[in-house]
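Batch manifest line 414
LIGAND: NDP
JOB: complex structure
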Amino acid sequence: MRQAEFNEEFAVHGRRARDADAGDVRRLTILGATGSIGTSALDLVARNPSHFSVAAVTAQTNVAKLAESARASGAERAVIGDKALYGELKSALAGTSIEVAAGEEALVEAAEIPVDCTIAAIVGAAGLRPSLAAARGGWRLALANKECLVSAGDVFMREVAQSACELVPVDSEHSAAFQVLREADRGAIEKLVLTASGGPFRDWPAEKIASATRDQALKHPNWSMGAKITVDSATMMNKGLELIEALHLFPVSVDQLDMVVHPQSIVHCLVSFIDGSVLAQLADPDMRTPIALALSWPKRMAAPTKRLDLCEIGKLTFEPADELRFPAIRVAREAMKRGGTAPAVLNAANEVAVAAFLEGRIKVPDIPLVVEDTLERCEGSGLICCAEQLDDVLSCDNEARSVAIESLNGLSRL
Ligand code: NDP
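JOB STATUS: finished
ARTIFACT:
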């Protein structure tokens, strides 16, 4: 599904969600339960024990936190992605009736358990297969894992349409757009503008960014998030990924998508219409607001977030993004325009480069350099093409990672 089916999909989502009784207990699976989004989701679940039950929680390596989350939420199943950790998880959950499983296939199987809503909060393209498995189930998908739309947006949205899955975005900007567009005349949209905080280096000169440390990159001014997305915010690649995510989620073209830097992170998205009106959504920067919306839509559930006090905030400011200091925005836009598997290559190369940065092997400006070089190499070797099937995307992702490693190794020559 893309823009054409959007209106109808929206109508179906609203109808189905309205059919659910407000008193219903919603059964959830949380993929990536030990992460920042997973923890926020579990916090909402813990505050509303009579409204939610948990079918499964998953993680990759964090056994202690997964076991604790499974016990606290009363989950039926706990799954650890790293197979070698099966025994450790089994011991940690000894004496409970929680079923234990491990490995990549077990993550997909957990995603296939029928529930009312799956929260897809695995980080990176690793989340693609489990998120897609949940989408195929046809129930609600609260999608935080933006990389799966960046890598495989067309394939993913086709499956969403086929299963009539109720996709509600969790990314704050897309949650904002989802709400704003709900009542809108979609044919009258002129622009959809995502806001960006600008990250920790927003007002740093290029030379200072070039020597920024890992700790400095991980110090986001407004949001508390996992390491990968925090680095993406520092390079502003995150906003590029989000533009591609928005292209798949909303009825807009590449030319109708834009971004603006808004350091306070209060306004999350602006939609302008042909009559000059602009609609926006505002909230304190706390992911529990969009997660709560995804869990309760079209109703709203209480979230324990700070209430917005505009007088206390005083000033909301906006400025253009500086694509010279943050070239990742341009690189991502070009991949979005190129289409086909270019965004999958972009995402794979970015994951490789961010991991290298977090390991202390490269500097911040090397990240977009590696991504752009990988895109050029892949274009040259014919890897950028149309992807009809999931396997095409997965093999492209795989090859692009090898190319990105070559690019990293030859970094001094770039
Ligand atoms: P975190 O790094 O905090 O958590 C990631 C989760 O995924 C953890 O549970 C982790 O398990 C699990 N995981 C990591 N690698 C794998 C793997 N290879 N296979 C299966 N599971 C894996 O990430 P965030 O919560 O910050 O982000 C999750 C997703 O949500 C990302 O796509 C991000 O872009 C998106 N998002 C996040 C926002 C935020 O505020 N954090 C805002 C908007 C979007 P373990 O703990 O064992 O490593």
